[in-house]
Design goal:
The chain is α/β, with parallel strands linked by helices and 449 residues long. The chain is 28% helix and 27% strand. The protein has an eleven-stranded mixed beta sheet with strand order 3-2-12-11-13-14-15-16-17-22-21, with helices on both faces. Strands 7-6-4-5-9-10 form a six-stranded mixed beta sheet.
C-alpha cells in the first residue's frame, strides 16, 4: 500500500513582479525569500509564533518564515497586554516577532529587521503543505470577547485566487497595494499581503494612516490599489486634498453607504469595490456599492439559509459550511443582501431597531464628527447602565442639542441615556470600537462626572 502524496501549495507566485516596495526600492521575490529563509532559521522550535510586526514587509517576512518552520501565525486583534497574555497562556512556547516596542508581557522576543538586502534565494519556490494551519486569527472584540479562527494554507490560497480573479489582478505587472489596514486583520492579510505573495501585485512596506500620508503614497506608487476602511476613507474625503487616481479602491470592515462610495469615486476618479467578509469565513463576496445593493459571492462560494434562518457559506476555502455573523437575505446561491450584524439587532420593550442604523443617524447630525451607540448588556449593568448609551465627538454641539436631533428621527425608547461627549473615540487600526474599551470609557466618565 502506497502513501498518498502530500498536497502542497507554493509560498509565492512565480512572477517577475516585485514582492514589495520599501521607500523607492523594489524588493524582488528572490530577495524576499532569502529574508524569509534567514528568519526561519532563527525561529525556535514551537507550535506557533505571534506575528506583531507593524511594517508590512517585516510582517510578510515573518509570515513566510513561520510557515517555512511549519508553525502557525498568531494574529491577535490588538497588542493589549491582557489580550496577548490570554493567547500566550494557550501557546506558552510561542515567541513574539516584533519590529517595534516589545510586547508588555513575558513573551520571548525575536526582532525582525529584514530589508531585502540578504542576497537572493536560488532554487525552487518553497512549497507549504496545503492542510497546514497558516494563521490563527482573532475577532476584533467589537461585540464581545475575541475568539480564534484557524485558516489553512489551502484556504488562504483559494480565497486569494478568487479575489485576484474578481479584481483583475491575475496577470501582468500588477499595482502596488497601499493599505491603511494592519496585516494582522484578516482583510489586511488577504488584501495587502496575499494578493502580493500569490499574485502579481506589490505590497507597500509602510502603512500610511493620515490623509496626507495616503495621498503621498498614491502619488509615489503608480499604478496603485488603495486598500482601506470606511473610517479611513471618510477621513480622506474630509481632508479636502487633491488626490492622485488609483486603479481602484477596495473597502471593508464595515458597510459603506452609497453616498460615501459615490463621493469617493468622484474625488479619487476610480471605481470602489466593497469586500464582504468576517474573521470566521474570510472574504467571500464583493459589490460595486454605487451600482449594487446586493453582494456577489466570490467564484465557487455558495450561500444558503438553514432551517433556523442562519446564513451559511461553503466554497473552495471552506472545507465545511461556515455560519455568518450577520443578518443576511439570501437571494440565490451567489447573491445576498446584508441587513446588519446579528449582534446589532436590538429589541427594547418589544420594539426593534438596528444598531448600525442608530449609529448612522447619530453620525448624520451636523456637528457630530464621530459617534457610537453602546447597547445594554449584562456587562454594562455592572457600570450602572441598563439602557442604550452613546459616546459622541461633537466639539461644537451640546449633549442636549444632539439628543433633540436624535428625538426627531427615532423612537424615544432608543434615545441614549447617558449621551457622553468625548474628545475622541478609541478606534482600532481598522476603525472598529471594541466593546470593552467603550465600556471602560463610559465608566471613566461616570467616575469623573
Amino acid at each position: 500500500m502506497t502513501d498518498t502524496p502530500q498536497v502542497t501549495r507554493p509560498l509565492i507566485a512565480d512572477t517577475p513582479a516585485p514582492l514589495a516596495r520599501i521607500g523607492d526600492r523594489a524588493i524582488s521575490r528572490a530577495a524576499f525569500l532569502a529574508d524569509a529563509q534567514a528568519l526561519a532559521a532563527r525561529l525556535p522550535q514551537a507550535q506557533a509564533a505571534f506575528n506583531l510586526c507593524q511594517d508590512r514587509y517585516h510582517f510578510a517576512v515573518a509570515f513566510a518564515a513561520i510557515l517555512l518552520r511549519g508553525q502557525v501565525n498568531l494574529l491577535p486583534p490588538n497588542r493589549g497586554s491582557t489580550t496577548l497574555a490570554e493567547i500566550a497562556s494557550q501557546y506558552p512556547d510561542a515567541p513574539a516577532l516584533v519590529d517595534g516596542p516589545d510586547a508588555e508581557i513575558a513573551i520571548p522576543i525575536l526582532r525582525v529587521s529584514a530589508r531585502g538586502e540578504a542576497g537572493e534565494a536560488t532554487g525552487a519556490i518553497p512549497e507549504i503543505p496545503a492542510d497546514q494551519t497558516a494563521v490563527l486569527a482573532f475577532s476584533s472584540g467589537s461585540t464581545g470577547t475575541p475568539t480564534a479562527h484557524a485558516r489553512s494554507w489551502e484556504a488562504l490560497h483559494a480565497v486569494t485566487c478568487q479575489a485576484l480573479e474578481c479584481f483583475d489582478l491575475v496577470d501582468g505587472s500588477g499595482p502596488t497595494l497601499i493599505g491603511t489596514v494592519p496585516p494582522q486583520h484578516m482583510y489586511g492579510l488577504e488584501s495587502t499581503l496575499l494578493y502580493a505573495l500569490l499574485g502579481h501585485a506589490t505590497l507597500l512596506a509602510g502603512r500610511p494612516f493620515y490623509p496626507e500620508d495616503i495621498r503621498a503614497a498614491l502619488a509615489d506608487c503608480t499604478p496603485a490599489v488603495l486598500v482601506t476602511t470606511p473610517f479611513h476613507l471618510s477621513a480622506c474625503l474630509r481632508a479636502g486634498l487633491e488626490w492622485p487616481t488609483p486603479e481602484r479602491i477596495l473597502c471593508a470592515t464595515a458597510p459603506l453607504d452609497p453616498e460615501t462610495a459615490g463621493q469617493a469615486e468622484r474625488v479619487f476618479g476610480c471605481r470602489l469595490d466593497e469586500i464582504y467578509g468576517c474573521t470566521e469565513a474570510g472574504a467571500i463576496a464583493t459589490r460595486r456599492t454605487t451600482r449594487e445593493s446586493d453582494w456577489t459571492a466570490y467564484p465557487g462560494a455558495q450561500l444558503h439559509r438553514d432551517d433556523d434562518g442562519l446564513a451559511r457559506v461553503q466554497g473552495p476555502q471552506h472545507p465545511e459550511e461556515v455560519p455568518l455573523p450577520d443578518h443576511i437575505e439570501v437571494r440565490d446561491v451567489s447573491h445576498f443582501r446584508m441587513e446588519g450584524r446579528l449582534a446589532d439587532q436590538l429589541n427594547i420593550a418589544g420594539k426593534r431597531a438596528s444598531l448600525a442604523d442608530l449609529n448612522r443617524r447619530l453620525n448624520a447630525i451636523p456637528g457630530v464628527l464621530d459617534g457610537v451607540f453602546i447597547p445594554p448588556g449584562t456587562d454594562q449593568e455592572a457600570h450602572g447602565v441598563t439602557r442604550l448609551a452613546a459616546l459622541v465627538v461633537a466639539p461644537d454641539r451640546s449633549a442636549a442639542e444632539i439628543q433633540a436631533a436624535l428625538a426627531e428621527c427615532m423612537d424615544p425608547l432608543f434615545l441614549p441615556r447617558p449621551l457622553v461627549r468625548v474628545d475622541h473615540l478609541p478606534r482600532s487600526a481598522t476603525g472598529k470600537l471594541p466593546r470593552q474599551v467603550l465600556l471602560d470609557l463610559l465608566a471613566h466618565h461616570g467616575r469623573c462626572a
